[in-house]
Amino acid sequence: MQTNFLTDLTRDVVEASRVRSGQSVGGAAPNTTGATLLQPSGRCAYPAFWLRDHALSVASGFITFEEQRHALLLAAQTQQAEDWRTPAGSFVPKGAIADHVTFGGEAVFFPGTLDAKVQSSAWGTLPSLDDHFLFVDMAWEYCQQTGERGILSEVIAGSTLLERLELAFAVPRSRLDTELVWCDEIDRGTSFGFLDAVVHTGELLFASVLRQQAARQLAELTGNPKYSAIAKAIGRSLPEVLAHSGGLLRASTGLSGQPDVFGSAYAVYSGAVEGKARAAICSRLADAYQAGTLALRGSVRNVLTTDDFSAQSAWERTVGPIPLNEYQNGAYWSPPTGWVCFAIAQENEPLAKKLADEYLAELREGDFRKGADCGSPWECVHPQGNYRQTAVCVTGVTVPLAAFRRLGWCR
Q: Which end of the chain is more exposed for a tag (fewer CB within 10 A), N or C?
């Protein structure tokens, strides 16, 4: 594997995504938040600060401490102060974390819009659930990378950052017995933003895995044993409640409960599952890759081609009609490739490296630095109609790079 190329490409993708103070991109208002923010695409496909993409990118090592600090405090400053029922009927609870923040500093709690005045969405009546736990992850990563925890005592509008982290953690609803995050169809929030156009109900895999990760991080940051107990309960519950006979974990227990490649791989990557459940996921992903039902040119599908809900849709229900094999309904995504490689490597490292090599080959061929006709890393692709979505996708390189470093494959 020639991974120095990936390191250099990631550096240039992150640089292309930076929006400095006073700068305006993609037709959006200038960045008036006071410091540099990252947008999810180096070609302005999403001209705003998306907390999720930033949080997932921090482990790449290319987000400066100053950028991390600014993003973390901006997330805290835009945290919802009081319960708010929007004019359209959506509900933003006290402590909610924004899905994204405009360059003018306005919080947007729901996917699907860049307009802070539009706080209602078919994507759910509750704010995205994953951002609350990724807010904790941002703080934990900052403390780990800088070696200092003074920021946790910093006061934002009367509450310390640590108090705000604990408040955010408590916002998504969880079951008392299993500690798993859940929602119903009436009061629904997004389990994970890379699948925000998919309707998931019941116990939720990805949000629960992120909750466990955040619980472990808060246990370390606070010393409070209740968070360790929550993490252990989730670890026990995941394979019991969300098991599937094929080996992967189900995305949810209600609507769109197909086996979830992204969530299962991240459960291994984050350490959420152990023992037989972990081994079953790794084995299933390895088998699926060899069978050709998982990956295309190094990117991975959110549902194996053998697990589609029907001939018309990968998932049981999506927000509005999304054609099969486009976007979150069966296209092949580059950001989770690192998680999948990590999981496969636990069973068969040469096979995992083969997938990584295919990923790197596609990046070399489509390297955005070659000019406007090239756009790799793409967020997602599919050969059907030569489908492409979101050129110069930041998480398309930052997330795999972090995983490859954990595997010892690159510097």
A: C
